[in-house]
Amino acid sequence: MRRFSAREMLNKLKWDPRFDFSQCVIVCVDRFHGTIEINAAEIESIGHKFLYLKDGRALPQHRIIEIRYGGEVVWRRP
């Protein structure tokens, strides 16, 4: 079975009407703060290589280590 990329999983959670994207949390590695959690409400857009946040930050997608939906892990970097 084909494995989804982080970008594909985020797009599925955002655009599939069965999901409420506001319940999504993205766990990323930050160079200065270690592991950080980003709530989906903070995301402005999902680009090809970056997540663009409403505060102007751009997070590289290769730093995403986990995606949670409704408190459960739905995607984890292998």
Write the layout of secondary structure elements.
Blueprint: H1 6-15, E1 24-30, E2 34-39, E3 43-46, E4 50-53, E5 58-60, E6 64-69, E7 72-76
Subunit organisation of the chains: single chain
Measured distance between first and last alpha carbons = 15 Å
* Mean model confidence by pLDDT: 95
CATH topology: SH3 type barrels
Looking at the structure, what is the overall shape? globular
What CATH architecture label applies? Roll
Number of domains: 1
Structural class: mainly beta
What percent of residues adopt helix (DSSP H or I)? Answer: 10-25%
Number of beta strands: 7
Order of helices and strands: HEEEEEEE
Q: Could you tell me the radius of gyration in angstroms?
A: 12 Å
Strand content: 35-45%
Largest beta-sheet characterization? 4 strands, antiparallel
Major sheet: arrangement of strands: 2-1-6-7
Tell me the name of the CATH class: Mainly Beta
Low-confidence stretches: none
| Helix count from the secondary structure assignment | 1
Summarize the entry for a quick read.
The chain is mainly β and 78 residues long. It has one helix spanning 6-15; strands spanning 24-30, 34-39, 43-46, 50-53, 58-60, 64-69, 72-76.
Give structural notes.
This protein has 78 residues and is mainly beta. The protein has one domain (6-76): Roll (SH3 type barrels), CATH 2.30.30. It is built from one helix and seven strands. It has one helix spanning 6-15; strands at residues 24-30, 34-39, 43-46, 50-53, 58-60, 64-69, 72-76. It has a four-stranded antiparallel β-sheet with strand order 2-1-6-7, covered by helices on one side. The radius of gyration is 12 Å and the shape is globular. The two termini are 15 Å apart. The relative contact order is 0.24.
